[in-house]
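Below is just one:
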Amino acid sequence: MTGQDLKAARMASLWTQNDAAEKLGVTQAYLSMLERGTRAVSSEVAEKAVQVFNIPATALPLGAYQNRRRDESYFQRALGGLGYPGFAYMQRSKKLNPAEVFMAALDSDNLDARVTEALPWLPVAFPKMDLAWLTFNAKVHDRQNRLAFVTVLAAQIASEQSDLALKAILLKTVATLERSRLAVEDTLCRESMTAAERKWLRAHRSQAAEHWNLLTDLSIENLDHALL
């Protein structure tokens, strides 16, 4: 988030610097420096601004991705806080950058099916998501096949919604990931599935899932909330 982003959000709210500074918990002089660019917007101010102003969560700073275990409630509350209809009843006290939530989910061994079904919604709901950050981290952690497959589904949603510009952006990301496609078989965050389930999915998965060497039956047909 830049000082110009802060200024634009403040002006859109028709607030003076004094009004906005009070809401953000900073002084008017400090906010003035932020808006002029003489001081960098801290992560604390950015988080507060997303709550105070109508600024998308994609404006929140993204640091280095940390590979650590998150429980189901983390994803449910994070998605609810970002506006996902399926978890609207569960919300975090503060929003997270959707790219951070997306990457953490892709890097999970086992996810609740409802969380997995929410993933294609993220790139559609947040078209300014940092796909370059996601692509980089997915490759570092060998999750590029998972990211590509979910992005294919997101592109299908964009097509259903006649958002051809977003569809093109998403398919460009898929093309980038194609160059590093992994040959090893993987699941879409369901490593605990049985041998029988794996055998069934090899015979019944979609062409896209087969291309990306994933054992999953996820398709656009079972993305009810994402298509709202």
